[in-house]
Amino acid sequence: MEEHRKESVRIFALPRKPLSVTAIYPGSFDPITNGHLDLIQRGSRLFDQLIVSILRNDQKRPLFSVEERAEMLREVVQVYPNVSVDSFEGLLVDHAAAHSATVLLRGIRAISDYEYELQMALMNRRLRPDIETVFMMANEAYSFISSRLVKEVFKLGGNISGLVPPSVEARLHQRLNHSNLIEGA
Ligand code: PNS
After folding, report:
1. Buried b (16+ CB within 10 A) or exposed e, 143-153
2. What global pTM score does this model have?
3. Which of 28, 36, 44, 53 is catalytic?
4. Does residue 81 have a cis peptide bond before it, meaning omega lies within 30 degrees of 0?
5. Which of 12, 60, 85, 116 is the most exposed place for a label (fewest CB within 10 A)?
6. Is the Cβ–Cβ distance between 86 and 52 less than 8 Å?
7. Is residue 106 among the annotated active site residues?
8. From the alpha carbon of 60, which atom of ligand 1 is closest?
9. Residue 108 in 3-state DSSP?
10. CB within 8 Å of 36: residues ≥ 6 apart
11. Per-residue pLDDT tens over the stretch 92-134
């Protein structure tokens, strides 16, 4: 009984819903795909503010710099007034807390994403129980798309139209001549 009461206290100790809910949509976005964009569009309808946050991680040897990725993201999210773009390094939950965000938004494409996402969500919950991870299922039309595959197909001469926003496709064309496209996510 005592245990039960303690458990109840723990459960109800979480802060209540804020008046305005801010969500962080974190990722590498190297580059943004139509799958990401679909999630941003649908996420923008659920939360008061949605911040698309690019991880600064040079170890991944990205194709586009964080600044280029942010520019590409801003071009495509400008139609959503409650969506903004940012970048972060260090712990995601610290970045979320710094923005008073209470939600981390992630997309799940297939069962293969699940284990990785579950590990991250549970670790983030352990670090900050007041920040909730919310998963949205990717649109089936985009469920096979990843930034890594887009870069690979593009480098090998495949058609990527419809997989990334046209502005991103144009940037890939510019970059193709002098880049090693295979690296990164
Ligand atoms: O698009 P990605 O590369 O799958 O995104 C991964 C990302 C950025 C969400 C993840 O690597 C991350 O949150 N990194 C920040 C470091 C961190 O907080 N690690 C502990 C939680 S698992």
Report:
1. eebbbbebbee
2. 0.90
3. 36
4. no
5. 12
6. yes
7. no
8. 3
9. strand
10. 27, 29, 107
11. 999 999 999 999 999 999 999 999 999 999 999 999 999 999 9
